[in-house]
Design a protein that fits this description.
Layout: H1 3-23, H2 25-40, E1 45-49, H3 52-65, E2 77-79, H4 84-93, H5 101-107, E3 113-118, H6 124-136, E4 139-144, E5 156-159, H7 165-187
Parallel strand pairs: 1-2, 1-3, 3-4, 4-5
Helix pairs in contact: 1-7, 2-7, 3-7, 5-6
Length: 193
C-alpha cells in the first residue's frame, strides 16, 4: 500500500536535489572557495534559520567545527539558533525579528560569512540578519525555496524549485554537505590524496 508512496517521495527528492545541485554547481564551488578563504583569514561562518532550517544551521555548524569526513583542525562556524537565553531575551525585550540580526551585530565582523536559511525566502528574522550582515561587510549566502526576499540580500543565493518544504530542506542539507566537503578539500588537499 505504502510502497508506491515511498517510491514517489524518493523519486521526487532525488529529482529536486539533482536539478538544484546541477543548476547551482558553479555557485556551490564559488561558495566553498569563499568559506575556505574566510576561514583561512581567521574569519568565521555564521549560520541561521527557523524550525527545520535552525536544525540545519546547527547541523552544518557542527560539521565545520568538529569534522566532516576527514580528521582536521576545527573550522570556525556558529549556529545562531542555539543560544536559548540570547534568543529569548532578544525576542522578549525587542522583537523575534531581531534574534539573528542582534547576534550578527554583536559577533560578526567584516570578512565573516552569513549563511541564512529560509525555505520561503521571506522569514523576517533571517532577512534582518542578512541586512545586518551586509551593513557590516560580511559575505552573504542565502538558502531558499523559489526565491523570496532573501535573494536580493544574498551575494550567492541557492534556490530550490519546489513547493514542498521537505524537498527544499533535503536539498539544502545536501548542498551544505557538499560545501563542507569542498571546503575541506580546498583547505586540506593532502588529506584527499
Amino acid at each position: 500500500m505504502f510502497s508506491d508512496i515511498i517510491s514517489d517521495i524518493l523519486d521526487d527528492s532525488v529529482r529536486v536535489k539533482q536539478t538544484a545541485i546541477r543548476q547551482n554547481a558553479g555557485k556551490i564551488a564559488e561558495c566553498a572557495e569563499k568559506i575556505a578563504e574566510a576561514i583561512r583569514l581567521g574569519n568565521k561562518l555564521m549560520i541561521f534559520g527557523n524550525g527545520g532550517s535552525a536544525a540545519d544551521a546547527q547541523h552544518l555548524a557542527a560539521e565545520f567545527v568538529n569534522r566532516f569526513r576527514i580528521e582536521r583542525p576545527p573550522l570556525a562556524a556558529i549556529a545562531l539558533s542555539t543560544d536559548t537565553s540570547v534568543i529569548t531575551s532578544i525576542g522578549n525585550d525587542y522583537r523575534f525579528d531581531d534574534i539573528f540580526s542582534k547576534q550578527i551585530r554583536a559577533l560578526g565582523k567584516h570578512g565573516d560569512i552569513a549563511l541564512g536559511i529560509s525555505t520561503s525566502g521571506n522569514s523576517k528574522n533571517v532577512l534582518e540578519a542578512m541586512r545586518a550582515a551586509r551593513d557590516i561587510g560580511m559575505f552573504t549566502v542565502g538558502f531558499t525555496g523559489k526565491g523570496g526576499g532573501i535573494v536580493p540580500w544574498s551575494d550567492l543565493a541557492f534556490t530550490v524549485e519546489s513547493d514542498v518544504t521537505a524537498r527544499i530542506q533535503e536539498t539544502h542539507i545536501t548542498i551544505g554537505h557538499i560545501l563542507c566537503e569542498l571546503t575541506d578539500r580546498i583547505l586540506f588537499p593532502e588529506s584527499f590524496k
